[in-house]
Amino acid sequence: xxxxxxxxxxxxxxxxxxxxxxxxxxxxxxxxxxxxxxxxxxxxxxxxxxxxxxxxxxxxxxxxxxxxxxxxxxxxxxxxxxxxxxxxxxxxxxxxxxxxxxxxxxxxxxxxxxxxxxxxxxxxxxxxxxxxxxxxxxxxxxxxxxxxxxxxxxxxxxxxxxxxxx
Length: 166
Prior knowledge:
By secondary structure, the protein is an all-alpha fold. It folds into 3 domains: 1-67, no CATH class; 72-101, no CATH class; 104-166, no CATH class. It contains 7 helices and no strands. The longest helix has 33 residues, at 103-135.
């Protein structure tokens, strides 16, 4: 992680990395630039999409974000395991997901994850806005987010060892 931070800071020019998901004080909607992804079709599409988000929610809402580090095993390893188990009849993504979570738990976990993400995406900004309107600060929202993250970490720690499904 230290190497990643060092590399990133050495390659940023006139930008900063903000370590939290909530922005610091901003000077209004126009103080947040819309991301520029270049002039390719994909870049233009991404830019136009963010202009639409600006019109719907404002740029400050887009500044509330997070940097996500996904830790997963390389696809080459999963392909090799799939061949060793003679499971090539199972689509690759399904195979990988069921090996991470177990076949029986796959649907249940996906349902809970999708529901939780949708609830968080829908309620997060509303709760943050209500707290800001009441207190004039996002501090309480940040403390609640930290407490919920700690609860999730505690629950994950109680899962125990992955069962052997042989």
